[in-house]
Backbone:
């Protein structure tokens, strides 16, 4: 049994008043300095928090817990191709070489999970970070 589960079990056992007479339903008990309903609420909140931590620990151990760089729907900035491209031509040792150089721009959008793999590459939290990355792309 994990330490978290032991704490949950202990809090569950302590959830009611010492005499076990009120089950957290009375307005106050003579043997407690605070109202039982307040104590019950505090125990329930602590138990819920520990159960959530236990669940997250299990997910982390299974490799299934993902920390997002921001909330889904938060404003972000994405580097995108913004239309037609220029053709750059160079001549090297008598041969002509051409390549397409796209026009790139920074567009505000909302974060969604499809963009997760692009974070730090073409998707950024701030316009300034996207601008720096775009300047590196152009260099």
Residues:
């Amino acid at each position: 049994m994990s330490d978290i589960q032991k704490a949950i079990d202990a809090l569950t056992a302590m959830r009611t008043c010492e005499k076990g007479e009120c089950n957290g339903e009375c307005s106050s008990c003579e043997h407690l300095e605070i109202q039982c309903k307040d104590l019950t609420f505090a125990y329930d909140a602590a138990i819920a928090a520990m159960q959530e931590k236990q669940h997250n620990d299990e997910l982390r151990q299974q490799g299934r817990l993902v920390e997002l760089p921001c909330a889904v729907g938060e404003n972000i900035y994405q580097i995108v191709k913004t239309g037609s491209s220029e053709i750059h031509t160079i001549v090297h040792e008598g041969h002509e070489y051409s390549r397409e150089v796209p026009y790139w721009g920074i567009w505000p959008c909302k974060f969604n999970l499809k963009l997760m793999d692009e974070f730090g590459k073409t998707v950024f939290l701030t316009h300034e970070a996207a601008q720096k990355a775009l300047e590196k792309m152009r260099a």
Observations:
- Helices lie at 3-14, 36-61, 127-138.
- Strands lie at 75-92, 95-110, 123-124.
